[in-house]
Design brief:
heterodimer, A: 164 residues, alpha+beta, four-stranded mixed beta sheet, four-stranded antiparallel beta sheet, 10 strands, 34% strand, B: 89 residues, 27% helix
């Protein structure tokens, strides 16, 4: 296995094919592929959503996602990581984000995937604005997202053997 | 050495709306040395900074595309971004 896995980050307006993007990570030594797909919800609390506008900070976004991906590659034994995040106008049911990981064993692939999405939620400079019959509003950051990220501060939180 | 620092400021999301602009260039006195002092200096200028920073809280700050803190030192020609907590994913 390669000393360090490959990392691909894409920030784009276009949709993506989760199956294709995940399968692309498969190598000869791959025993586990894990992917997370985040989807735009139709209701956020009781607010009915017809359209979501995703604003981001071009440049910092890519830099931040690459940094999170590199942290995952340093912490777990992974063959490949792919992170895709969309911006622009979306509708309920649309895919927003993909995190995919490939590893020899499932624990590293699961843990790294979760680590990446937990960090992305609290660090990557994206902002959602929802609009619907009730008007438009900026989505508020959730304390539960900060808690999900805090979990990873303790390396003992890893369920997988941490290092190669 | 000039007695001011030129900085490029960026505003995002709710703060961009409150400011009525996405970016601006400012000349900051050399006595302003870190990100916390920069925010205080902007607020002290009055409209629209005081209103915008009062309405949108908390505000995160990034220096040259890396998240910083109040004590992060400023440098000339830096890009400083102000934004609310992120809500992607």
């Amino acid at each position: 296995m390669a000393e360090s896995g490959s990392l691909q980050v894409r920030v784009q307006e276009a949709d993506f094919d989760p199956g294709q993007e995940t399968e692309a990570l498969r190598g000869r030594a791959t025993g586990a592929l894990v992917s997370f797909v985040g989807i735009a919800r139709e209701f956020s609390e009781s607010f009915s959503v017809e359209r979501i506008t995703l604003e981001h900070y071009p440049g910092m976004t890519e830099r931040c996602l690459e940094d999170i991906g590199r942290q995952a590659l340093a912490r777990w034994s992974l063959q490949a990581v792919r992170i895709i995040h969309r911006y622009g106008e979306l509708q309920p049911g649309d895919r927003i984000v993909l995190v995919a990981t490939a590893s020899t064993h499932r624990d590293a692939a699961f843990d790294a995937c979760r680590f990446i999405i937990d960090f992305l939620k609290t660090e990557a400079p994206f902002w959602k604005r929802e609009s619907g019959p009730g008007g438009a509003r900026w989505v508020e950051a959730k304390p539960s997202d900060d808690q999900a990220r805090e979990r990873w501060q303790d390396p003992a939180a890893d369920t997988a053997p941490a290092r190669k | 050495m000039s007695d001011t620092l030129e900085l490029r400021l960026l505003y995002f999301a709710r703060l961009r709306e409150a400011m009525g602009r996405a970016q601006e260039t400012v000349q900051v006195p050399r006595t302003v040395t870190n990100l916390g002092q920069l925010r205080a200096w902007l607020i002290a200028r009055g409209e629209p900074w005081d209103q915008a920073f009062a309405r949108v809280q908390p505000v995160r700050i990034a220096l040259d595309q890396v998240v910083g803190h109040d004590d992060t030192p400023l440098r000339a020609d830096a890009e400083v971004a102000f934004f609310p907590p992120v809500t992607g994913g």
